[in-house]
Design goal:
It is a single chain. The chain has ten helices and two strands, in the order αααββααααααα. It is mainly alpha-helical. A two-stranded antiparallel ribbon has the order 1-2. The radius of gyration is 17 Å and the shape is globular. The two termini are 29 Å apart.
């Protein structure tokens, strides 16, 4: 199982600011930087092996994405996870996740399908007894981001990545109370199959069911 949530475009061609952004973003999403924790630019720069300028550029983007908050004279902090946001986030995802799945089924390239097929094989190898919940959530992020990239609509992709990040933070907050994290992640298998097979209607239906199941699971855990 990978230790980081990779996505299309990861690689040597990324700028330092982009690398810093992706690394800090995923630490925030996975709650490795805890909600409400102060953000220290120097510590982040040192841990990432970059200067302060790329970190500052990354933090500007992360503030726009609601992952960090800056208070005058107090500093910058990881955004708190507010469960009341769940309904708003789900409202957006229930409309856009089926759309993205259908578009991916229609537009996925051979490369997209190869990426999704590799993730499908990884899903098949998941043993809930042998994988930590955090590893499963990294895999969940990878699948979502691969599907969004396969839409070949950068505006739809950016919107859904942001909302999936916020949803994942909520999921991670309650992960110790959730009984079937592996089952939630494994639901992606049939969805990937539908996209790879080029079946937009089935892909849309499965994506919608997945989002609804996510909200039900969280509400049951509260």
């Amino acid at each position: 199982m990978r230790n980081v949530a990779t996505e299309p475009g990861d690689g040597e061609g990324l700028s330092l600011a982009e690398r810093a952004y992706r690394a800090i973003r995923d630490r925030l999403v996975m709650l490795e930087i805890r909600p409400g924790a102060p953000i220290n630019e120097d510590q982040l720069a040192q841990s990432l092996g970059v200067g302060r300028t790329p970190v500052r550029e990354a933090l500007k983007r992360l503030q726009y994405e609601r992952l960090i908050t800056t208070y005058p004279r107090r500093g910058t902090f990881a955004t708190e996870v507010n469960i009341t946001d769940l309904a708003y986030i789900s409202e957006v995802r229930q409309e856009l996740e089926p759309l993205a799945a259908a578009r991916a089924a229609r537009r996925a390239t051979a490369t997209d399908r190869a990426t999704l097929t590799a993730l499908r094989r990884e899903l098949e190898s998941v043993d809930p007894r042998g994988h930590a919940a955090a590893d499963l959530m990294h895999l969940d992020l990878q699948v979502h981001r691969a599907i969004y990239a396969a839409t070949h609509n950068p505006y739809l992709e950016d919107t859904l990545v942001r909302h999936d990040n916020l949803a994942t933070r909520i999921w991670c907050l309650f992960i110790d109370r959730l009984s079937d994290v592996a089952g939630h992640v494994e639901e992606h298998g049939p969805l990937i199959d539908a996209i790879v097979a080029g079946d937009p209607d089935k892909a849309a239906q499965l994506a919608g069911n997945h989002v609804e199941g996510f909200e039900r699971a969280i509400r049951a855990a509260i």
